[in-house]
Prior knowledge:
Its main location: membrane. The chain has five helices and two strands. The protein is mainly α. The protein has one domain. Strand 1 and strand 2 form a beta hairpin. The longest helix is centred in the C-terminal third of the chain and has 34 residues. It is elongated. The termini are close together.
Amino acid sequence: MRMQIRNSRQGYGLVAVTLHWIIAFIVFAMFGLGLYMVDLDYYHPWYTDAPDLHRSIGIVLLALVSARLIWRLSNPQPAPVAGHGQLQRLAAAIVHWLLYLDLFIVMISGYLISTADGRSIDVFGLFDLPALLPAEKGREELAGIVHWYAALVLVSMAGLHAAAALKHHFIDRDETLRRMLGPSAGK
Protein backbone atom coordinates (compact mmCIF):
# COMPACT_ATOMS: atom_id res chain seq x y z
CA MET A 1 0.00 0.00 0.00
CA ARG A 2 1.40 3.39 -1.00
CA MET A 3 1.48 6.14 1.60
CA GLN A 4 -0.28 9.38 0.73
CA ILE A 5 1.58 12.68 1.00
CA ARG A 6 -1.18 14.39 2.99
CA ASN A 7 -2.99 13.21 6.09
CA SER A 8 -6.33 11.50 5.71
CA ARG A 9 -9.10 10.59 8.14
CA GLN A 10 -7.53 7.10 8.35
CA GLY A 11 -3.95 8.09 9.15
CA TYR A 12 -1.02 10.43 8.83
CA GLY A 13 0.55 11.13 5.47
CA LEU A 14 4.18 10.82 4.40
CA VAL A 15 5.09 14.41 5.27
CA ALA A 16 3.68 14.27 8.82
CA VAL A 17 5.22 10.85 9.50
CA THR A 18 8.63 11.80 8.12
CA LEU A 19 8.76 15.10 10.02
CA HIS A 20 7.60 13.39 13.23
CA TRP A 21 10.38 10.78 13.19
CA ILE A 22 13.13 13.15 12.04
CA ILE A 23 12.19 15.64 14.78
CA ALA A 24 12.03 12.87 17.41
CA PHE A 25 15.48 11.60 16.42
CA ILE A 26 16.97 15.10 16.44
CA VAL A 27 15.47 15.96 19.84
CA PHE A 28 17.04 12.94 21.53
CA ALA A 29 20.34 13.34 19.64
CA MET A 30 20.51 17.03 20.59
CA PHE A 31 19.85 16.20 24.22
CA GLY A 32 22.70 13.70 24.15
CA LEU A 33 25.01 16.16 22.39
CA GLY A 34 24.07 18.86 24.89
CA LEU A 35 24.92 16.61 27.82
CA TYR A 36 28.19 15.64 26.18
CA MET A 37 29.36 19.14 25.32
CA VAL A 38 28.75 20.82 28.66
CA ASP A 39 31.48 18.72 30.26
CA LEU A 40 34.14 19.37 27.62
CA ASP A 41 37.19 21.23 28.81
CA TYR A 42 38.93 23.98 26.87
CA TYR A 43 41.54 21.62 25.41
CA HIS A 44 39.11 19.02 24.12
CA PRO A 45 39.01 18.90 20.29
CA TRP A 46 35.20 19.17 20.37
CA TYR A 47 35.18 22.17 22.73
CA THR A 48 34.10 24.58 19.95
CA ASP A 49 32.88 22.08 17.36
CA ALA A 50 30.19 20.47 19.55
CA PRO A 51 28.45 23.78 20.41
CA ASP A 52 28.71 24.89 16.75
CA LEU A 53 27.09 21.62 15.66
CA HIS A 54 24.45 21.90 18.41
CA ARG A 55 23.52 25.44 17.32
CA SER A 56 23.39 24.55 13.62
CA ILE A 57 21.23 21.48 14.19
CA GLY A 58 19.04 23.57 16.51
CA ILE A 59 18.34 26.02 13.67
CA VAL A 60 17.49 23.12 11.35
CA LEU A 61 15.22 21.73 14.07
CA LEU A 62 13.48 25.10 14.36
CA ALA A 63 12.77 25.02 10.62
CA LEU A 64 11.52 21.41 10.77
CA VAL A 65 9.27 21.98 13.79
CA SER A 66 7.86 25.12 12.18
CA ALA A 67 7.18 23.16 8.98
CA ARG A 68 5.58 20.35 11.00
CA LEU A 69 3.33 22.79 12.84
CA ILE A 70 2.28 24.51 9.60
CA TRP A 71 1.66 21.11 8.01
CA ARG A 72 -0.39 20.02 11.03
CA LEU A 73 -2.52 23.16 10.93
CA SER A 74 -3.10 22.90 7.17
CA ASN A 75 -3.94 19.18 7.01
CA PRO A 76 -6.88 17.23 8.37
CA GLN A 77 -6.13 15.24 11.49
CA PRO A 78 -6.92 11.54 11.35
CA ALA A 79 -10.15 10.52 13.01
CA PRO A 80 -9.83 9.46 16.64
CA VAL A 81 -8.96 5.81 17.14
CA ALA A 82 -12.01 3.70 17.95
CA GLY A 83 -12.29 3.11 21.66
CA HIS A 84 -10.53 6.31 22.74
CA GLY A 85 -12.84 8.28 25.00
CA GLN A 86 -13.20 12.03 24.99
CA LEU A 87 -10.95 12.48 28.04
CA GLN A 88 -8.20 10.40 26.42
CA ARG A 89 -8.47 12.41 23.19
CA LEU A 90 -8.34 15.69 25.14
CA ALA A 91 -5.27 14.51 27.09
CA ALA A 92 -3.53 13.51 23.85
CA ALA A 93 -4.27 16.90 22.27
CA ILE A 94 -2.99 18.77 25.33
CA VAL A 95 0.22 16.71 25.42
CA HIS A 96 0.84 17.29 21.70
CA TRP A 97 0.43 21.07 22.05
CA LEU A 98 2.61 21.10 25.17
CA LEU A 99 5.30 19.24 23.20
CA TYR A 100 5.18 21.94 20.51
CA LEU A 101 5.27 24.71 23.10
CA ASP A 102 8.22 23.17 24.92
CA LEU A 103 10.07 22.58 21.65
CA PHE A 104 9.80 26.28 20.87
CA ILE A 105 10.86 27.24 24.40
CA VAL A 106 13.96 25.03 24.07
CA MET A 107 14.84 26.39 20.64
CA ILE A 108 14.19 30.07 21.43
CA SER A 109 16.15 29.87 24.68
CA GLY A 110 19.00 28.17 22.79
CA TYR A 111 18.95 30.99 20.26
CA LEU A 112 19.02 33.54 23.10
CA ILE A 113 22.02 31.79 24.70
CA SER A 114 23.90 31.81 21.40
CA THR A 115 23.14 35.42 20.53
CA ALA A 116 23.41 36.95 24.01
CA ASP A 117 26.69 38.59 23.02
CA GLY A 118 25.09 40.16 19.93
CA ARG A 119 26.79 37.79 17.46
CA SER A 120 24.94 35.83 14.82
CA ILE A 121 24.78 32.04 14.59
CA ASP A 122 26.79 30.40 11.83
CA VAL A 123 24.65 27.56 10.45
CA PHE A 124 26.92 24.85 9.05
CA GLY A 125 29.00 27.54 7.35
CA LEU A 126 26.14 28.09 4.88
CA PHE A 127 24.60 31.25 6.30
CA ASP A 128 24.43 33.34 9.45
CA LEU A 129 21.28 33.76 11.50
CA PRO A 130 21.56 37.27 12.95
CA ALA A 131 21.07 38.22 16.57
CA LEU A 132 17.69 39.92 16.73
CA LEU A 133 18.35 41.51 20.12
CA PRO A 134 21.31 43.65 21.17
CA ALA A 135 23.93 42.12 23.46
CA GLU A 136 22.73 42.00 27.04
CA LYS A 137 24.64 40.95 30.13
CA GLY A 138 22.92 38.14 32.04
CA ARG A 139 20.73 36.94 29.15
CA GLU A 140 22.97 33.96 28.43
CA GLU A 141 22.74 32.69 32.00
CA LEU A 142 18.96 33.10 32.29
CA ALA A 143 18.37 31.59 28.84
CA GLY A 144 20.70 28.74 29.77
CA ILE A 145 18.64 27.89 32.84
CA VAL A 146 15.42 27.98 30.82
CA HIS A 147 17.05 25.92 28.04
CA TRP A 148 18.26 23.23 30.46
CA TYR A 149 14.98 22.76 32.32
CA ALA A 150 12.84 23.00 29.20
CA ALA A 151 15.07 20.37 27.54
CA LEU A 152 14.64 18.07 30.56
CA VAL A 153 10.87 18.53 30.38
CA LEU A 154 10.89 17.97 26.61
CA VAL A 155 12.84 14.71 26.75
CA SER A 156 10.68 13.50 29.65
CA MET A 157 7.45 14.36 27.82
CA ALA A 158 8.75 12.75 24.62
CA GLY A 159 9.65 9.63 26.58
CA LEU A 160 6.15 9.49 28.09
CA HIS A 161 4.68 10.10 24.62
CA ALA A 162 6.68 7.13 23.29
CA ALA A 163 5.67 4.97 26.26
CA ALA A 164 2.01 5.81 25.67
CA ALA A 165 2.34 4.89 21.98
CA LEU A 166 3.92 1.55 22.94
CA LYS A 167 1.16 0.94 25.50
CA HIS A 168 -1.45 1.56 22.80
CA HIS A 169 0.37 -0.80 20.46
CA PHE A 170 1.23 -3.72 22.74
CA ILE A 171 -1.41 -3.58 25.49
CA ASP A 172 -4.44 -1.90 23.90
CA ARG A 173 -3.58 -3.33 20.46
CA ASP A 174 -5.07 -0.32 18.71
CA GLU A 175 -3.99 1.66 15.66
CA THR A 176 -2.41 4.64 17.49
CA LEU A 177 1.24 3.78 16.76
CA ARG A 178 0.61 2.10 13.41
CA ARG A 179 -0.92 5.32 12.06
CA MET A 180 2.37 7.14 12.71
CA LEU A 181 4.37 4.33 11.09
CA GLY A 182 2.36 4.29 7.87
CA PRO A 183 -0.63 2.48 6.38
CA SER A 184 1.05 -0.91 5.92
CA ALA A 185 2.88 -1.03 9.26
CA GLY A 186 2.05 -3.94 11.47
CA LYS A 187 -0.34 -5.55 8.96
